[in-house]
Design a protein that fits this description.
The structure holds two protein chains of two kinds. By secondary structure, chain A is an all-alpha fold. Chain A is 71% helix and 1% strand. Chain B contains six helices and nine strands; from the N terminus they run ααααααβββββββββ. In chain B, a hairpin with a 6-residue loop joins strand 7 and strand 8. The chains are: A mainly alpha, B alpha+beta.
């Protein structure tokens, strides 16, 4: 009897998708892999995608097993597992959103606003988002890249290390870029 | 140069955004977010991400999971907490930017209201950006009913997790001083409540701001 009933499901899934189960892995190893992948997915899976998490997990496991088969290894690093789980999840997010957009394109009636709230709030939010997008595009290239990283949550020191630039230069670019961004937004009637 | 509202507005571009035909492969986004691309490839990727909501979201998700800690128990993992800031809360925070009409933008015109927390039944019971002492850092909110279960998540402005705990009944939570040891006095922290009332659907609060005292 396979450990924890994991392998039959994997065998079925991998055969369905044209892959071969990793001969090098024991049932327990596969179960452990699945548990680690599930842990990674559980932490990053957006709430609206929870219903598809098992499918994403299965897809990610198939990808891992294919690599194990190719390499003959029985182990993969945590970093690799995280990367595989991430790519499977982003693929699923993209699939869902493309399907939704196709459905909206096909619908005869206008789509309902995605965000909950009053029409005023929705309009205000759209105005802000459109303004941010336009103002980002207007930043000069060197500032835009640095500001992009900064707005994505990277710290100044991290950006400096990533871009291999002096800390002070990055700090200046962030400061000037954010100032440009705020000025541009203000001209559009949008202010923090 | 911390600017929470700008960051929130930028990340909100990713909420519900559909991918384009030219969006890069997720693996490349992962590599870019983890500094594994050469300069030319990274610059090209950033030029795309700056104007693509779907890839902004994907980049942030890539940063939210670290390779070496995938086996961490959920209670110790930061990424789930990051999601709610990158996702739903970002919309509310983006909408919290004050917008006024250019056409009617005279100084006497009333500003439309800010929207932070407008639609959530869970309101903060402490002031916006109120300063709480490090040794009595107690967050309070309006209860949603008796015996409700509340999950409270506290993060830095850079979205690093500080505390994630669940309480039952009393609508308050004291963050242990040890959890705040790495946070400088005067820093602004983000906090949020997810409530599960017995027999009712779970609800979440907006993201609130509080400052750490000495």
């Amino acid at each position: 009897m396979p450990a924890m009933g994991i392998k039959p499901a994997l065998v079925e899934a991998t055969v369905e998708r044209g892959a071969r189960p990793a001969a090098a892995c024991s049932d327990a190893e596969l179960a452990a892999l699945r548990q680690r992948l599930d842990g990674a997915l559980r932490r990053i899976c957006p709430p609206w995608l929870v219903g598809q998490r098992d499918d994403i997990l299965q897809d990610a496991m198939v990808r891992v097993i294919r690599v194990l088969d190719r390499t003959g290894d029985a182990e993969v690093s945590g970093a690799y597992l995280a990367r595989v789980g991430y790519t499977a999840m982003i693929d699923e997010i993209r699939r869902v959103r493309r399907r939704r957009e196709d459905a909206l394109d096909d619908a005869a009636e206008p789509a309902a606003p995605a965000a909950a709230g009053s029409p005023e709030r929705t309009a205000a939010s759209s105005q802000v988002l459109g303004g941010v997008r336009d103002c980002m595009a207007r930043l000069v290239e060197s500032r835009r890249r640095v500001v992009t990283l900064y707005l994505l949550g990277h710290g100044v020191g991290e950006i400096a290390a990533t871009l291999d630039e002096p800390y002070k230069r990055i700090e200046n670019l962030v400061h000037r870029g954010l100032t440009n961004l705020r000025d541009c937004l203000a001209r559009k009637g949008i202010s923090p | 140069v911390i600017d929470h509202d700008l960051r929130a507005a930028f990340t909100a571009l990713g909420d519900d955004a559909a991918p384009g035909v030219d969006c890069p492969d997720p693996a490349r986004l992962w590599d870019g977010a983890h500094g594994a691309l050469d300069a030319a490839d990274r610059d090209a990727l950033l030029d795309h991400v700056a104007g693509c909501g779907a890839c902004i979201e994907a980049w942030r998700l890539a940063r939210a999971v670290a390779g070496d800690d995938v086996a961490l128990p959920e209670s110790a993992a930061p990424s789930r907490a990051r999601w709610w800031v990158a996702g739903g809360a970002a919309v509310a925070a983006a909408a919290a930017l004050v917008v006024w009409s250019r056409a009617g933008g005279d100084a006497d015109a009333p500003h439309p209201p800010t929207f932070r927390g407008e639609t959530s039944p869970i309101a903060s019971a402490i002031g916006d950006r109120e300063v709480l002492p490090r040794d009595a850092f107690t967050l309070r909110w309006q209860p949603v009913g008796p015996d409700a279960r509340y999950r409270v998540i506290v993060m830095t402005e850079a979205l690093d997790p500080i505390h994630d705990a669940t309480v039952v009944g009393a609508p308050e939570l004291t963050v242990p001083a040890a959890q705040l040891a790495s946070v400088a006095a005067g820093a602004t922290l983000l906090w949020r409540v997810e409530a599960s009332p017995p027999g009712a659907a779970p609800v979440r609060s907006a993201t609130f701001l509080v400052r750490l005292g000495p």
